[in-house]
# Entry
Amino acid sequence: MLAQLLRYLRGAFAAPQPTLMIITGDSGSGRSRLLEEVTTRAMLEGMSVARVRAVDADRGEPHAVFLALAVGGLDQTPGLAAAPPGALATLCAYLPQWKERFPAASQLTGMPLRDAFAAMVRAVADERPVILAIDDANRLDPQSLADIPVLLRNTSGLPVIYLPRPRTA
# Structure
């Protein structure tokens, strides 16, 4: 399963288009472990990875997943500093640690969080392929779930993989 998923990832990056790959399976079948292993190997192969585990509290916070991914690895990726200043300003408004890293941007006018996140992903994907992995994705807030197709559209032509792993009953 791991080797097959890694082949799919490499294939998706060969033709740079955003891709949605969902890890499914029975409860207890090792889906979270598979997600962790795939993203770890992807990092070793030079891909940029942001990985988070959604929690129940996320359901009440619109776009909580974007902030979690921003500090769940996206903040450590090459190319982030090339993001539009307004995008960086938006994240600075939400995340104190970003104000320290981008002090000039923290003084600027931001943009809607969804658009800022997409702009940052585009900047990072210009440098190298990006994987955005979300464990327990079923816990995302409704707005974040609705925005996944928008993010796919807004990262068109770039090597970005959205890799949610929903929990099954």
The chain has a mean pLDDT of 90. Helices lie at 2-14, 31-44, 64-71, 85-94, 96-101, 113-125, 142-154. The beta strands are 19-20, 48-53, 130-135, 160-165.
